[in-house]
Amino acid sequence: MKYDGHNLSVVRREIGDVRELRVNDIYSISLDSAGVWMATKKGLSYFDSRLENSYDFPIETDDKLSVSSSFVFDVMRISASEVWIASRAGLNVLNEEKNEITVYQHEIHDGKSLSSNVITSFFKSKKGEIWIGTQNGLNKSMGEEGGRLTFKSYSPKISNKQQDDDFDITSIEEDLIGNLWIGTKDGLFYFRTNEEEFVRYGRQP
Q1: Residue 80: pLDDT above 70?
Q2: Distance CA 74, CA 92 (A)
Q3: Residue 186's pLDDT is what?
Q4: For the range 143-151, what are the long-range contacts, defined as Cβ-Cβ under 8 Å and sequence gap of 24 or more?
Q5: Per-residue confidence (pLDDT) for residue 26, from 0 to 100
Q6: What's the CA gap between 148 and 11, in Å, rounded?
Q7: Whole-angstrom distance, CA of residue 165 vs CA of residue 9
Q8: What distances in angstroms separate CA 21 from CA 35, 43, 61, 135, one per listed residue?
Q9: Which strand (E) or helix (H) includes residue 152?
Q10: pTM attached to this predicted model
């Protein structure tokens, strides 16, 4: 839907319509001054609200603007020049100044890589910290080293297990004191950011 200040209109896939979108199933959106970034089950799209047309990013090609998967779960503008894309095959970072996408994935022997290739959600805190939800843990962006982003991962200890191997995050929010509420497929978690501790709220077996 689009609101121009006076009227509300629906933008959807219609054959032959100049406002046609690649798909109607949209998981997440992020706004900027010119339009809407869309995370969909058929990749990343951008809708220019001024021109009322959309651009679909290529998927799994050699193009420097190609997204690494057709399944895009979340999208967020991180800065004036960067848009982050959460996909089933890694974190895609679009640098608009360089006009290219860099993909970050889990690397088995790199403790500063992401904890999973399936990226599900993003959250930017009041402090400017970027938190990343994945299918296997919470990650925090730690900035660049050697021109590449690095990450720190967190997972709760559950029962006698060292950590939950399936800490599948669906959403992240922040409270007034800077701690995080995390929605997962295994209940609700509260993360004390200073102590780096989890508290779980959920239905017991």
Answers
A1: yes
A2: 11
A3: 86
A4: 145/112, 148/104, 149/91, 149/93, 149/104, 150/112, 150/113, 151/104, 151/112, 151/113, 151/114, 151/115
A5: 92
A6: 37
A7: 44
A8: 14, 11, 20, 28
A9: strand 148-154
A10: 0.84
